[in-house]
Amino acid sequence: MKNFKIVKRALAVFVSMVMICSITGASVAAQPLQSQPSVSYTEQQGDFQIENGVLIKYTGAGGDVVIPDTVSSIGDYAFSHCKELTSVVIPETVTRIGNAAFYYCTNLTNIVLPDSITELGKFAFGMCYGLSNITIPKGVTTIHNWTFACCENLQSIVMLPNITKISETSFDGCTKLTTIYGISETYPEIFANKKGYQFIDINEPFTDVVYGDWFYDAVVFAYQRGIMTGMDETTFGPSVSMARDHIVTMLYRLEGEPEVAYEPIFPDVPENDFYTNAVMWGNQVGIATGYENGYFGIGDEITREQVVTMLYRYAQYKGLDTSQETSLEEYKDGADVSDFAKDAMEWALAAGIIKGENNEGVINPQGSADRAGGATIMMRFMEWYQI
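Given the sequence above, the corresponding structure tokens read:
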């Protein structure tokens, strides 16, 4: 406890010193901060003050925040002391999070760091008490001094082989940190062993899922949490199309596989198949309904709009906030979204659970979802709601 208080005081002193120095024009010789680029263009975009692509100040009231994709860097102290901030969506255009950028955002519980980020500054997430887990982006090679200092509720971190250096003080005051997820025989394992953290190898047994694949992180996420299994012991099948019963089974596993009584509701859902209880549960709670002909559609390829509709219904069933929305008019094929899926699709796009294909304004709502895509959508959903 004594060391914890010392770290807190150090954080406060550091921030105070740098703020004073920024006013007087002095510099902190011991630990100089990265200077902002010279200002040639400044704009106020909504609640964001942006200079040359650097978000230098958030002026909003907090809550759920989506950073515009015109931002390339989150500057020093941009969100500092924004205690009402609860979640942040960072676009893949961002490459740097500055010193103390989210310092003392005490209610920040949900933030996903895109792999485009290559630098996390000192005290970037200092005293973010609400964070319970974090995944370090693939582009980051060094975790600096006090980057996550005093994140009291941080319990686990995912670190991949890109990490080659971690400061001794990176996680000072993280009193609940117990687990590091990574790949054996890499630097994160050495760090975990040195610090006495549990290290869990996330290298998958699947021969068709390799570190570096765009879907690797999602497969690891879904597999480790018991949401998805392989086609067999060594094959995941990332390009295999998913069926309607597969998605409802994933949600059923996420729910903890509650007991459910079988009812012969659907002619194509027999008793005691692997998906039977999931379909019964999904139908009973209003997440998965059948077709007009009375069948559920076992084995039918599921479309992207059907996937997000089931997720949307599940979120509402759990009482989660689904008020986020993005107009379908922003997408070339937004008019192709079926009426039953419009609300769900607007929510999923706003929350970043589903994105335009190939970084274009195309949703492809009737396109099929493969297992890699299903794992990715489920990971984004769970990360958005910190499940």
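The helical segments are 2-24, 187-195, 216-224, 244-254, 276-284, 304-317, 342-350, 371-384. Try to locate this feature in the token string yourself.
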